[in-house]
Amino acid sequence: MRSSEATAIYDMFIRTNAKAPWSEPVPFAQLVEACREEQRIELESAYEPPAFLRESMHVERSHAADGTLLVTVRSAASAGSASNEHAESAELTCTPTHVLYFHGGAFFKRISDDQWRFCQRLVERTGCELTACIYPLAPTHRCAETLAATTSAYEAACARAEQEVARLVLFGDSAGGSLAVAVAQLAVQRNAALPDRILAISPFFDMMGDVDLATGYNAHDPLIGRYSCQQIAEIWAEGLDPRSFPPDPLYGPKRGLPPMLVIGGEHEIMLSGMRAFAAEARTEGCQVTLSEYEGMWHIFPFIEHLPESQRAFEEVVAFIA
Q: Is the peptide bond before 307 cis (omega within 30 degrees of 0)?
């Protein structure tokens, strides 16, 4: 049963027609152009994580082999410990974990403050080191460029994890969730090293909405509509068939993928794709946990104060740590 706090937020989304930019042609077209302008500004002034993150965490900027910006955060305490000349002699009680994060935003929008806050909490709770990939965005860039950048970031993360003898977790939400899975699927195709685990919150599977399940393209989703899903796929995947892999992980290889945790809401438009992916992956021997939250919507875990979000966060912590 959905909590009263979540119901209040859900009702507010419905009352204010919050899904309009992501479901109706005119506001969606305006959103696309606004994103194009945001990307032009970002190109002129290099991306910087928010001030609250830089003030509370150790933040490190680096680049993958192709020049993709990587922003790595870890707790100030662990950063100080790592710099201690005696740290190497300390007895480790657990294997360190490195998380490579691909943010959501429909492939169009840059990582938000709420997403950074979620990452910050994750680092503080688990002691992991987390790297956010600042990948190329649509409509300025297309799928091939995004996947090239995220694959380069993944290769850098693999090298870092090997050097530090750390576990590597791929993490993404929404569009970033599909990228996390797609990067692992591309590694399967190349017979390359695989991550230890994959975490996906509301991943964008079944981009064109072809899965015929009871949920279908859920009319009760308060944030996203079928129109925008199809438009996003057609714009971002220009030159590719949106009903193939890439771009859609639903059609990609599943045998050999590492254990996965997928978190979704009952009232989100992408649930049918998540269910279809999980079912197919299990038949291929992949260990997939699909955690569905009653009455919830797309990427709800990023609204920190909700009881459902707190439960989802604890699932994430347990899965990673």
A: no
| pLDDT for 218 | 57
pLDDT score of 226:
86
Contact (CB, 8 A) for 70 and 150? no
Q: How many residues does the chain have?
A: 321
8 Å CB contact between 8 and 309: no
Q: Which amino acid does the sequence have at 316?
A: V
Encode pLDDT of 278-320 as tens digits. 999 999 999 999 999 999 999 999 999 999 999 999 999 999 9
What is the CATH classification number for the domain harbouring 17? 3.40.50.1820
Position 88 in a domain = no
Tell me the C-alpha distance between 64 and 70, whole Å.
7
Number of domains in the chain: 1
Q: Rounded distance, CA 302 to CA 287, Å?
A: 25
Rg (CA), the chain: 19
Q: Residue 87 domain-assigned?
A: no
Task: Put residue 219 in one of left, alpha, beta given phi > 0 → left and psi -120 to 50 → alpha.
Answer: alpha
Tell me if 48 is assigned to some domain: yes
Spatial separation of the C-alpha atoms in residues 62 and 72, rounded to whole Å: 8
Minimal CA–CA distance to 313: which of 179, 120, 91? 120
What is the DSSP code (8-state) at residue 112?
A: P
On the question of a cis peptide bond just before residue 139, with omega within 30 degrees of 0, the verdict is yes
194-228, pLDDT tens digit by residue?
999 999 999 999 999 888 554 444 568 899 988 89
Distance between CA atoms of 257 and 106, rounded to whole angstroms?
Answer: 24
Chain position carrying tokens 């507010």: 12
Share of the chain above pLDDT 90, in %: 83
Give the tens place of pLDDT for each residue, 101-154. Answer: 999 999 999 999 999 999 999 999 999 999 999 999 999 999 999 999 999 999
